[in-house]
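Q: Hi! First time doing this. I have a protein sequence and I read that you can turn it into a structure. Is that right? Here it is:
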Amino acid sequence: MNNSVTYIRNAGILLLGIFVFFFVIGNLEGPINLEIKKAAIPKQENPLSAKEISIKSADSVNSKRKVLVKPIKTGGIERILLIGDSQLEAMRKPFYNYITANGHELSATVLWYGSSSKQWANTDTLAYYLIKYKPTMVVLVLGLNELFMNDFDQRRMNIQKIKNNLEAKGLNHYWIGPAAWKKDLGVIDIMQSEWGNRFFPSHKLTLGRAKDNRHPSSDAAWGWMKAVAIETTKNGLLSLPKPIQGKVTPKKSPFILLKVPK
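A: Yes, that's right. Below is the predicted 3D structure, encoded as structure tokens:
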């Protein structure tokens, strides 16, 4: 009997509370404004520096995070990050001249001696320089150190991974293939099949060589870059229709040299 009385009393108090709530709301003169603010995300300091690069596995990044893929902008004015292997010693100057003559900007050049698609795909080096220089386009000059590699499945995965990383960030991208001095074992075909018209077949050009008879000479690199400019313009990937005006040394464009990977 006591339990029934308690239950009825509690129900009555609840109904009275609801009545009072709606009575108060009904007598307010204006609407209730609710403002929902997004929680502020603190900025994180980048633990890497240009002089000391801590090479970490790309797998350390949360791979389960969903990435919104932005449409890739092509053909407009670009802010370019130029990366690759030792071929950049000859290519950097003509590349700078061609793109600046056409209104583009060379944000930085990162030359990683001895590097291949393996290092650029599986370390956080590329991610670091993308954050540091915020390019709209990445151009690779890469592949000379893997001409005689035959681990094709692994090379394909590396090549795909680089492309997927750039596409996920909505970045325009282009690969200037290795200016091979000898026939490769098949890795160039893999590069071209994965990157399609975003790959330039440098191995098909006849280029003068430096003293080591492997790298293109400084003079030959100008003709090499001219062929690249014609191709990227034709495909609408990087507009370089204007010829260069003289041969200018790159100015105010960082040139980063990284040690040979272990």
